[in-house]
Amino acid sequence: MAVVSTPPTLERALPVMDNAEVLRIRNDFPVLNQLVNGQPLVYLDSGATSQNPLSVIEAEQEFYEQRNAAVHRGAHHLAVEATEVFEDARQTIADFIGADYAETIWTSNATEGLNLISYALSNAGLWAAQGRGDAGLKELALNPGDEIVVTEMEHHANLIPWQELAFRTGATLRYIPIDDAGSLRMDLAGGIIGSRTRVLAFTHASNVLGTITPVAELVGLARKAGALVVLDACQSAPHLPLDVKGLDVDFAVFSGHKMLAPTGIGVLYGKQELLDILPPFLTGGSMITTVTMERAEYLPAPQRFEAGTQRISQAVALAAAANYLTETGLDRIHQWEAGLGQRMVAGLESIPGIRVLGPAAGQERIGLAAFDVEGVHAHDVGQFLDSKGIAVRVGHHCAQPLHRRLGLTATTRASAYLYNTTHDVDQFLDAVAGVRAYFRA
């Protein structure tokens, strides 16, 4: 089976990735060298959580062994060193996404980042009504009659915070629908994003469909409407070069655990002029200038949004993960994964009784494929594959409205990363081909 791939970019003078290189990369990931149910592990669930290379594991361990202390709070040697590596990690991530240092906020995950934006915007209305804060807050406040626009393919984390923001402010939530094939109805987008739109929030790449959304076109519509743009980059930051300034989004979020880093660390990017006037989401220590018994004054970003003890070791490990991806070459990783995604889709489409969601073989997608097996529940499919050592995700993938629109309650999803080979994909396809016969569907 031929590997279909996207053309390589000229950004790095490195050879195209191949199976031999991927096998060398796999040696950096200890967890992949094990048997599951007596079979070599084939890990195809990186869309949920990726695995960690030794360099990332060692970076976090080294912090605890050599520099463990609270940041921004002490003058002793360990505290100074901890603060330095913590803020160096911020600069590394800022460079990784094309942002400025002060525009890079640590969060626990992307979900927290989206909630941070949502609550900061509703607090903007409260502050503006009390004459508190910057005069520009009035322009950010949402009111009845205003509209928030999302898409029908969003992860719950990029839907529910906006539902709740609409509830708190009286704004109306609207969405750009998808068609029967799962494609975004861009022919309708211009009629949905309009003069009342204050926020447009959408995924860069769908965690179910594998679709890469037309960011430039959507941003253009938002700019015409004067709306803020929020980008969910959870499925793009780990897999393709990300330039938040080049994309001209106002905010972007992603999670470390999907890009080789530990759990418990995420990133919020925001334009400096917005972050410096938005009210904070969490309040407490380390994010203030002056506190009296009656009120507090807050630091500018990034500390403005980082109350309390921070995720120091996780941030250091995330920076190590970003360095690992940068050294490998995100353009090369994207090309390799796109080929694996095409291989998965083409193979699945050739199996009777399989329905693949999202773009058909030959059309652009990231390296994942969600599918339905006629007559067999997704959870049974997942258990069957697990019996053969193949790890996939099953369920609605935190996208119930999307599944409901396509007439499904659950699907099975295989998602590849830089440590997967074409042989992994072929083993997966061979196993899927036997599902219906095993269950006598």
TrEMBL record:
<feature type="domain" description="Aminotransferase class V">
    <location>
        <begin position="42"/>
        <end position="428"/>
    </location>
</feature>
<protein>
    <recommendedName>
        <fullName>Cysteine desulfurase</fullName>
        <ecNumber>2.8.1.7</ecNumber>
    </recommendedName>
</protein>
<dbReference type="InterPro" id="IPR015421">
    <property type="entry name" value="PyrdxlP-dep_Trfase_major"/>
</dbReference>
<comment type="similarity">
    <text>Belongs to the class-V pyridoxal-phosphate-dependent aminotransferase family. Csd subfamily.</text>
</comment>
<keyword id="KW-0808">Transferase</keyword>
<dbReference type="InterPro" id="IPR000192">
    <property type="entry name" value="Aminotrans_V_dom"/>
</dbReference>
<dbReference type="Pfam" id="PF00266">
    <property type="entry name" value="Aminotran_5"/>
</dbReference>
<dbReference type="InterPro" id="IPR020578">
    <property type="entry name" value="Aminotrans_V_PyrdxlP_BS"/>
</dbReference>
<dbReference type="InterPro" id="IPR015424">
    <property type="entry name" value="PyrdxlP-dep_Trfase"/>
</dbReference>
<dbReference type="InterPro" id="IPR015422">
    <property type="entry name" value="PyrdxlP-dep_Trfase_small"/>
</dbReference>
<comment type="function">
    <text>Catalyzes the removal of elemental sulfur and selenium atoms from L-cysteine, L-cystine, L-selenocysteine, and L-selenocystine to produce L-alanine.</text>
</comment>
<dbReference type="InterPro" id="IPR010970">
    <property type="entry name" value="Cys_dSase_SufS"/>
</dbReference>
<keyword id="KW-0663">Pyridoxal phosphate</keyword>
